Amino acid sequence: MSYVKSLRGKESGVDYPIEPRTICDSDFGPVEVTYDYEAMKGKVTRESIEAGPLSLWRYRDLLPIENEPRAGLQSGWTPLVKADRLAKHLGVKELYIKDDSANYPSFSYKDRVVAVAVTKAFEFGFDTVGCASTGNLAHSVSAHAAAAGLKACVMVPHDLEAGKMVGMNVFGPRVVRIEGNYDDVNRLCSQIADKYNWAIVNVNLRPFYTEGAKTHGFEIAEQMGWKLPKHTVVPVAGGTILPKIWKGYQEFIELGLVEDNKPAMYGAQAEGCNPIVTALEEEAELFRPQKPNTIAKSIAIGNPADGYYVLKNIRESGGYGASASDPEILEAIKLLAEHEGIFTEPAGGTTMACAIKLIKSGRIPKDEPICVCITGNGLKTLEAMDGQFPESRAIPAKMADFDQLIQETSQTKEPAHV
Amino acid sequence: MSYVKSLRGKESGVDYPIEPRTICDSDFGPVEVTYDYEAMKGKVTRESIEAGPLSLWRYRDLLPIENEPRAGLQSGWTPLVKADRLAKHLGVKELYIKDDSANYPSFSYKDRVVAVAVTKAFEFGFDTVGCASTGNLAHSVSAHAAAAGLKACVMVPHDLEAGKMVGMNVFGPRVVRIEGNYDDVNRLCSQIADKYNWAIVNVNLRPFYTEGAKTHGFEIAEQMGWKLPKHTVVPVAGGTILPKIWKGYQEFIELGLVEDNKPAMYGAQAEGCNPIVTALEEEAELFRPQKPNTIAKSIAIGNPADGYYVLKNIRESGGYGASASDPEILEAIKLLAEHEGIFTEPAGGTTMACAIKLIKSGRIPKDEPICVCITGNGLKTLEAMDGQFPESRAIPAKMADFDQLIQETSQTKEPAHV
């Protein structure tokens, strides 16, 4: 049993049965899963959720699956870190890091959306799953497919980081490298889904896939003690996660699980790919696609599929956006690592850097609870740190040499986090 | 309050107060924390543990801390994966993977021992923590120190994998590269601990540090539903974890938390560094140190500090050991990834390869529950996979090119996990 009502054109309002579907036939807009919230009331409660498994599946009543989960049984329920050292450094009162760099099994937020999509692929009877990806999604699809015993074919831009390539290849998928950027890969995947009858998770399973991203928001609320942060800073790539965290917050409010504190949403982008932030700054109704050029490759999506909704939700919520340069991104990666022991990829550095800018500019007040959403792991993008840590001279294994080194370097370098 | 009784010479039986201590003064042997198990009875129960936090600190009554934990509040409680696809492939009935490659915050089992050691460093009033490390330990010490606001100085062999170097440098510790192998680094660290009054976690905090490794075993037992696996396969490097899993199992038996099913322990080593397995095969009472030469650098310790106890516990338990060659290690990494979606480092490949050898040789029967302990993450040792996945040709973002590629490659390659 589930509380799912229909697949509905987000703009058209046209209802469709629960089926693989990329867009609404009437207006070519997106489709979204709708639920019977009335039926949930009194049944989907804090207690019912707390009695569930320690994974994103504790929220299964708010996810579009009909039968038992078939993937991601250990995905989600990632740490919400109360970042007191970083809060002190930034002069803010209450700062949280929602850390999906520790997600399972592939160490990014994508494990949430893929867990739902792979389960749905089983329900629809597909034997092959695939995706268009900037790296993290292909990694996650490959890992989940391997664990579930499905075939996988993942499509990626030709210039991905080596770590991400090995990280996905090891699971044995077919990896197809495409000349072009993510937007080129994505366009090709729409055709592939139709022709090959594969479950391309972010194309023909997109309405189900994106619902998984709500769990990032659900967990923030539950882990804060059934409260919403007043300010949530989220990276914007294709535009899935921000609107879905927002939807998750609204669902929790609707069900009476949290109080409505009018949470505000903030979008974070790299300067080299910031169509959404540009639209916010220019107060434009629509965004203009861009050609990406940034070290934050996992969020380098110039034409975000759900960008319209990112803009809409940010504005509705009273939030805003910011962009970070490549050097600012690297600085923020180090700042987060040195204060909280968390090593994120450039996308996370972007989010952290933008949060800092929004705090410094006064857009986010220092005395209200702030949550920064970290969505990927730094171990997959080591290239981004090239040249940041010059190799130190190796010394002989002798006390005298050690003493001398300590004397020399203590004059020049104190550990940055002290 | 705690149940700690003393620090006791393991061989001499001499008791010491709870203090930083590397060895027993009377016989230069190791010292170990002892507890008052009688006082625990009826108080440390399945229920009391289940009511604890979702981290290794749920076992704090069996850990040597006096006050509140100061580190690793999110460490431990890693997935125990029921590996049904791999079990089927190997023809065994019940196979579990205890997956510390997903440990927090640094993605190896070392987060367990460091969480305890850093908490203890606070209790003893140290302001600097350090270690001798093959990589994972330095990574963990650096991350925990950053999060806790302690200074860190980590000592490593000069030839560590680049991923591990970046992975630790980002947290801002002082990193000292030493000419020589781990055993050389370790010897130097004993002198450093004395001279600098630093908490070298695996030297002068070793008795406390090692206790953290018990939690790997506690979690296996609790996650199996308060049962012990009949066979546990564990990598052997310095020799900390195998004896401590064994001690954890025995403590749970002593406290009546699990039934005594006579669990057997198996040691896994790389062929290029297998002093313990050689001693087992030669039925020698003591092991002979070796000069390591293997891709499994994180377990390349030729003179294991606690090797004597590894041998002793393996023999007492009725277990055995095996070694794996570098190619076998790489094959096992891929096998685990392709069947269970878990990407481990060469140490984990070693453990998996050795488990397979022990099963194939009949040392481990196919019809009894087996647990394989995976202790580190493959994303930190990407170099080990160099040449395993030749880069495929990039194709234009056109359907005709995609069709052709699929046609070509479907004739030559099926995804390995199908």
Task: Give a concise summary.
2 copies of one chain form a homodimer. Chain A contains 15 helices and 14 strands.
Question: Layout of SSEs?
Answer:
2 copies of one chain form a homodimer.
Chain A: E1 4-9, E2 15-16, E3 31-35, H1 37-40, H2 46-50, E4 80-82, H3 84-90, E5 95-99, H4 110-124, E6 128-132, H5 136-148, E7 151-157, H6 162-169, E8 174-178, H7 182-196, E9 199-200, H8 206-211, H9 214-223, E10 231-235, H10 241-254, E11 264-270, H11 275-281, H12 307-317, E12 321-324, H13 326-340, H14 346-360, E13 370-374, E14 395-396, H15 399-412
Parallel strand pairs in A: 5-13, 6-7, 6-9, 7-8, 10-11, 10-13, 11-12
Antiparallel strand pairs in A: 1-2, 1-3, 4-5
Helix pairs in contact in A: 3-13, 4-5, 5-6, 9-10, 11-12, 13-14
**Order of helix and strand elements from N to C terminus of chain A:** EEEHHEHEHEHEHEHEHHEHEHHEHHEEH
Basic shape of chain A: globular
Strand order of the largest sheet of chain A: 4-5-13-10-11-12
Number of separate helices of chain A: 15
CATH architecture of the domain at 80-104 and 207-384 in chain A: 3-Layer(aba) Sandwich
Alpha-carbon Rg of chain A, integer: 21 Å
Kindly report the average pLDDT value of chain A.
Answer: 95
The end-to-end distance of chain A, rounded to whole angstroms, is 54 Å
Reported by name, the CATH topology of the domain at 80-104 and 207-384 in chain A is Rossmann fold
Largest protein interface, residues of each chain: A-B, 81 and 81 residues
Proportion of residues in helical segments of chain A: 25-40%
Specify the CATH class of the domain at 80-104 and 207-384 in chain A.
Alpha Beta
Strand percent estimate of chain A: 15-25%
Structural class of chain A: alpha/beta
Number of DSSP-assigned strands of chain A: 14
Characterize the biggest β-sheet of chain A.
Answer: 6 strands, mixed
GO molecular function (chains A, B): L-serine ammonia-lyase activity; threonine deaminase activity; threonine synthase activity
Protein name (chains A, B): Threonine synthase
InterPro entries (chains A, B): Ser/Thr_Dehydratase, Thr_synthase-like, TrpB-like_PALP, TrpB-like_PALP_sf
Cofactor (chains A, B): pyridoxal 5'-phosphate
